[in-house]
Amino acid sequence: MIPTSRSAGEPRRNQLRDSIRPSGSEPESTPPVVAHVAQFGGDDLLPGARVHRSVDLLRFLMGVLCTAIVLAVSWVAHATTSGVEQDISRGTDHTPGFPISLVGFIAGAAVLVLSVAFAIERLVRRDDIRLTDGVLAAVLAYGVSLATDLWVTAAAPSAIRDALTRTLPTGGTTDPVHGYLASVLAYMTAVGLARRPRWRVALWAVLLLNASVALVGGYSTSLSLLITLLIGWSVAWSTVYVVGAPNVRPTSRSLLAGLRRAGFPRSPTAAAATESHWRTATQSTSPSSTENSRRTPSSTKPGTA
Prior knowledge:
13 helices
């Protein structure tokens, strides 16, 4: 019997027909890769809802170290810090009081407006988790500021007290730390300003305006303002590290839901099976396999029976 090319190409046609079967039908045997892919259907391999990053801890430690350095400088170099504050006081003695009061009122209102506007913007974008972290950081920063005020006025060395406070014309002394500025800085830093350059510029503009008014008006010292900013910055990053930064990575379930909406297979098993079948079909229809199928007929000469 003379073999023909039809009988030789029949297995290849059957293999190709099986490889392009409808998506609803299951394959006869599950390839090993399917069982491997099916293990990743859950969320066990993804991190939790919050991540404790070492960079946040490093920033907190840097803030504490800088605060300690400023306090040490104010204690050791008492004559230098006193001379700087006297120069600033003499330069601002002849400043009119009404413009300073007006600018101070505008600066205080700007702090309040900026904080509320930033909170509304975060709520509109449904970033309530970070907003809660910011409020917690603001409360903690205000508490640390009050504790620092009590320590400076009651138990700190006189050199540190003189460097962080000034005597008011009406009597009394200024606050060693401005709690409202530390709270605003901690609040907005904990919420996150890395990818928000406009908000970052607005924050520092408001803080510099308040610091200038407090310094020119005689309501603060330069070291006091520096300690205030360091406390707010340090408390913000310590809160972010302890509570944990929100994990913005999508879970595997959300990724699978997005793939299903885009028209991909409904499960990892079906996706792996489809990939395996189409790979087999591609190999069977490649030029090398077609050439081999043409050489499949027996070497029996056409004239023999």
